[in-house]
Amino acid sequence: MGQAGFKGLSQSLFDYKTEKYVIAKNKKVGLLYRLLQVSILTYLVVWVFLVKKGYQDTDTSLQSSIVTKVKGVTFTNTSELGERLWDVADYVIPPQGENVFFVVTNLIVTPNQRQETCAESESIPDAWCYADSDCPPGEPVVAGNGVKTGRCLRVGNMQRGTCEIFAWCPVETKPRPVKPLLGKAEDFTVYIKNFIRFPKFNFSKTNVLDTKDRAFLKSCQFGPKNPYCPIFRLGSVVSWTGSNFQEIALQGGVIGIQIEWDCDLDKAPSECNPHYSFSRLDNKFSENSISSGYNFRFAKYYRDGAGVEFRTLMKAYGIRFDVMVNGKVCAVISHPEAGQVWSGASFFCDLVLIYFIKKSHFYRDKKYEEVRILRVPPGLAESSQQGGTPKAEEAEQPEVHHGGGSQKGNGCPCQQLLEPVR
Question: Is 422 annotated as a binding residue?
Answer without folding.
Answer: no
